[in-house]
TrEMBL record:
Lineage: Bacteria, Bacillati, Armatimonadota, Armatimonadia, Armatimonadales
Gene designation per UniProt: aroK
Cofactor binding: number and manner: Binds 1 Mg(2+) ion per subunit.
Residues that, per the record, bind substrate: D34, R58, G80, R141
GO cellular component: cytosol
Annotated family: Belongs to the shikimate kinase family.
Name used for this protein in its record: Shikimate kinase
Amino acid sequence: MLDNIALIGFMGSGKSTVGRLLAQRLGWRFQDTDALVERVAGCSIPTLFARDGEAAFRDKETSVLLGITLGERQVIATGGGAILREENVAALRTRSLVVYLTAQPEVLAERVSRRPGERPLLTSGQPEPPLARILSLLAERGPLYQSAAHCIVDTSSRPPAALVDEIIRQHQRGLV
Ligand SMILES: Nc1ncnc2c1ncn2[C@@H]1O[C@H](COP(=O)(O)OP(=O)(O)O)[C@@H](O)[C@H]1O
Ligand SMILES: O=C(O)C1=C[C@@H](OP(=O)(O)O)[C@@H](O)[C@H](O)C1
Ligand SMILES: [Mg+2]
């Protein structure tokens, strides 16, 4: 059985929420790459994007991810753009069951609207309204999530606790 479980998927798919709960259920360590990047940067993600730009965020994200994927008995919640770099995906797949959390675009839009300002790619001066922006990012990223994942879990109409059960089942099946 693989040593870690990593959650990938679009902003608002529930990686951080489900990941925390899953780690509690398994008694594993919870690692949220966004929180670790914030710790390394000493500021919030919106501040980091505004101050140093997306590329600086991506470099920190990769460095955090490569470090934690060496560990074991961890649930890793990635940021929605972690799949943009092949080296991130390769590091995740080495020792982790990679689970792609999906949701309908309208569901993602509603969920991310609960904390406006938290996700710079959807808020700060973007030319498109949120749902249109989500659709265009999904068109770019959908194939990357699909090919990075060992399995896919639809979160649109299931509460986090039910998703935790489903992911544990997938892990026990020993996929890969
Ligand atoms: N399965 C779910 N059903 C309903 N709401 C959810 C679900 N998963 C997450 N949420 C809510 O959606 C929002 C975004 O969740 P979050 O875990 O931050 O997503 P991500 O880390 O993938 O961006 C939060 O308000 C969270 O409570
Ligand atoms: O999709 C992305 O590129 C991003 C997703 C965010 O994480 P969540 O997916 O947890 O919101 C965070 O890493 C940053 O704002 C960039
Ligand atoms: Mg998150």
